[in-house]
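Practice problem: predict the structure.
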Amino acid sequence: MPITQQWELRAEFARRLSHLYGKEVPAYTTLLEVSQAVNDTVLSDLGAGAERLGSIARVTAERHGAIRVGTPQEMAQVARVFAAMGMYPVGFYDLREAAASSVPVVSTAFRPTDPDELARNPFRVFTSMLVPSDRRFFSADLQQRLESFLAKRRLFTTELLVLADRATEYRGLNSGDAEMFLTLATAAFKLSTEAVDRAWYRELEQVSSVAADIGGVTSTHINHLTPRVLDIDDLYARMERRRIDMIETIQGPPRWAGPDLLLRQTSFRALAEPRVFREPDGSVEKGSLRVRFGEVEARGIAATVRGREVYDRLTVEVEQAVREAAATAPVSAEVRNEIAAELWNQQVPATEQGLALHDLAYFTYRVDTDKQRNGTVPGRSLQDLIDQGWVRPEPIVYEDFLPRSAAGIFQSNLTSDGHKDTTQSTTDIDAAWMEGVLGRPLHDPYTLYDGIRRASLDHVANQLEICGPIEEPAPIATQGVK
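Answer:
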């Protein structure tokens, strides 16, 4: 019987989720339409240059989802479901620290890790888990009641988990099992029509809207599903012209003179969705909740550890400059971008070659077959190979997330800031703890990007018959790299 491969499960799951979310949140369909129109325009204007960071087929199909769970057991089960589709946990994000308001979750992202698998379908899901033991948000009494509530629910059926484990073991499923797996997996993220306990939901909402969205209901759902766009500034403007209520800013790096780096994100605001509530007297009433929104993203080149240090430092400098400017006049989103762009243009190389030679971004390298040797022998220095025209850098797409941006999107769609008592002690959670919860390796994104770059350089060395490994750029200071 034909086997449905893991990447095919992944692609079909992404397609079905997109269809489901479009039915549940009609404005998402508008977002897809505008994204497609923007991408068509960029492709028409730039031609092949529009596909510098991925083929238009990949960009058009690309989505990232976001879900939220409540317990380590639920997180471990999510890992099993996504492993069936060749999606593995990458990165650790502590949004408790990244957010100024109350966002009591820690997160990871499930995605393909192999470049060929990413090229087939790069679907990724940002998955957040509640931390009820953190006293900055939850009292001991509320923690006990919340954990008791969460322990009684079951997000994934036994049949789904069995099929997921089978797909992981055999790297795919037969057609009948594949259809059942996809049906059950999609249904697990469908918005429930079950009545919400209004009093319990409101109690959690006083702590955090995110906590209520996770622990105030008996199921999980898609929080947002994000298309990729090639010009996020154009998309933002087009959505506003359609009178779609957008959040104030585009999160992440500014629009500047150089190549796109890392990740830029924005969203339309969470919409009021009809829900049914159970009142304290047992009666059932109609109402609404605002928890789901429409996010969109533009992906750039992956930054190295050194590049990320520069990004984080510039983020602090931008915030300081904006505060200083706001002391004399209101700062619009456009002025904020101008302030950020000026700092970036002053301090960051504005070419791919500059980013590569300063070791600020990740690239693969391709031998220039038009280069004539003329008896010369290429050296081992990457800088010489680039300067002398032996190789050309090809950007590696950033496949991951920025915690400040994720927290910023969450915050912009909260119904309230909630409550965060900074005098209380925190619960220490790190990547090692998350790996234990998942019961499988938690990949470090930098290690993955380093591996792709190193494999490329080894291939170049073999093609050019260079003895020994190619020498990468030496470490440099991160202050004022230009």
